[in-house]
Amino acid sequence: MTFQTKKNNARLNSPVTALPGVGSKKAQALGRLGAFTLEDLLYLMPRRYEDRRFPKPLADLQPGNTECATAYVAEIAENNGRTEAIITDDSGSARVVWFTERIAGFVRKGMRLALYGPVGNYYIEPQFTHPEFEILRQGKPPSLIGRIFPIYPGTADLTQRAIKKFVDTALETYADTLLADFLPSRILTRYKMMSLKEALLTVHNPPDEKQFIRARNRLSFDELFLLQAGVIMRRRAFTGKYRANILRPGKIFSEFTESLPFRMTDSQRAAAYEILDDMEKPCPMNRLLQGDVGSGKTLVAILAMLAACDSGVQSAFMAPTEILAQQHYMNLTKFLAPLGVNTALLTGSLRASERREILDGLADGRIDIAVGTHALFSEGVTFRNLALAVIDEQHRFGVLQRGNLTAKADSPHVLAMTATPIPRTLVMSIYGDLEVSTLNEMPKGRKPIITASLTHSQQKKVYGMIRDEVGKGHQVYWVCPVISESERELASVSAAYDTLTSAMPEMRAAILHGQLPIDEKARVMRDFSAGNVDILVATTVIEVGVDVPNATMIVIQDAGQFGLSQLHQLRGRVGRGDAQSFCVLLENKGITDSGRERIAAMCETSDGFELSERDLIQRGPGEICGTHQHGVTDFRVADLVRDEKILTLARNEARGLLDDDPDLRDEPGLRREILRRLGGVLELAAVS
């Protein structure tokens, strides 16, 4: 009776305790695998599979492989805490060793066993080493071998058999009642797709590789299709809104462009034209401006904000850190104050009186451009006529944060910027129909940065390079992964500062990290920008936006600890002037193979788009684009690298379906599924 009650009342979002046999302790263990609900358990994807379909004769066992076999026990005995056995079949014999004496307590001579495990050599005889095993009974098929076994993510509190039992029970109990097929029948028919129930049963119990691939592709298509349909729906609703258009640039814009001491690159001009053209339209702009470090995105954003100024409306420029916000504010004030543009800086560390004055200026329209951090969308901040939101390093903001800023106005134009080039598959997946402008040129006169990898023991060589650069009147960044000593023995800012000042006492050094008071951080950056500091020892707070053309060398200590995109961003702090610049990647003693791969990639190429593709493969989309915490790329099955063709197909099918049925009136099941999975994100997807 209890079993039936649990089954009948269960929903996909019911906790795993709705499953027979799962109490609070088992639920906690499953939670550590990410399985909190019945849906999580049904979609708990195996991380790999073991093919145990074809037991081998003992004579064919290959040392170095993991093999399965069936054989009779010819001899078995305990030996110094181990159990040793000789097994035989029609082809020959082999040895078995288990690292426990308990096996000999219930395995007897003459029994028939199924075994699965690593095979080695014992003199000339093959040997199973601590294999899984099962005693075979007459008339009962083996459960250990004879099929493909899924291997799930592990936890110390649950064996693989227990996890498999819970998954199988969930499938048996709920597959018929909870797994409704939501894909349109025309898509299922056109591509001969498995049903949702069949696909889930197959990925957990694949009969062969062909059927597994069909099942995995069906589930990957589901995730990608739902996201594409949801984002396209939200995007179309967004572009259907009306927003007062920003007129063509006027006097302020012209004065600024005529005063530039350099010629803009062709890609900057093209991007500016696309943005200005978007802002002339009566529907809100939603554009991503991406370009490699140093390609001049900020200048393009300034042009957009000046067009807004000429139209008598306000702009907001949001940066992820106070250091970057301050840097933008200083640059904007320097260039725009002479033109009569009123710019203000709003951060969380302002004094109450300063904050009140800025809030008043935003509310009555005296401030044309507000620069700040997430403080821009905090409570109490109101704009008189905010029409353009520029979001710098957009991947560092969660989807909800970006939405909170644009909620300060009635459908403002949105220009998101990133110096982390986003792979094409990611743009298609996360941003749907978002328009993208790309800066693919560097300003003239920039020299390629020379990148080298050195070991920890070659640090004295690095000191010589630093002396050479400082001797030429240049400056140096020294970057560490942590502020102070840590349990993982990573290079710290404090230790590096002590070492550098001891080895090179003639150098003027300073420390910069995120825990310093904002006034102190600002003072250090001013001193470094003014040339009063030779070596800036810092954490990754300098990763984005810091622009000191006189800095020609960056040393990244324990470089293997950083991701590829982060290393590329850090390297972009130098090479911003006319002088030759250098990036030195220092390997630590405990560097991993993947860390070496990242360092090698940095030495091979300076192409940010190529590095971002490699980073996507290594790290996944959520970490790169700052969306993982909000569920936009929490794919259980889909892989944006492997499934690019499926993504393209899903996008085309979603677009075609929504062209015919914009509100999905003919597909209520699909509409419900989109809202169930993506409802919290859809309202914000178009501005992400």
CATH topology of the largest domain: Rossmann fold
Q: What profile does the largest beta sheet have?
A: 7 strands, parallel
Which CATH architecture of the largest domain is right?
3-Layer(aba) Sandwich
CATH homologous group name of the largest domain: P-loop containing nucleotide triphosphate hydrolases
Domain count = 4
Helix content: 40-55%
The number of helical elements comes to: 23
Could you characterize the architecture of this molecule?
This protein has 688 residues and is α/β, with parallel strands linked by helices. 40% of the residues lie in helices and 18% in strands. The chain has four domains: 1-48 and 160-179; 54-146, OB fold (Dihydrolipoamide Acetyltransferase, E2P) (Beta Barrel), CATH 2.40.50.140; 251-439, P-loop containing nucleotide triphosphate hydrolases (Rossmann fold), CATH 3.40.50.300; 450-605, Rossmann fold (3-Layer(aba) Sandwich). α13 (399-406) links the parallel β13 (386-391) and β14. The longest helix has 31 residues, at 209-239.
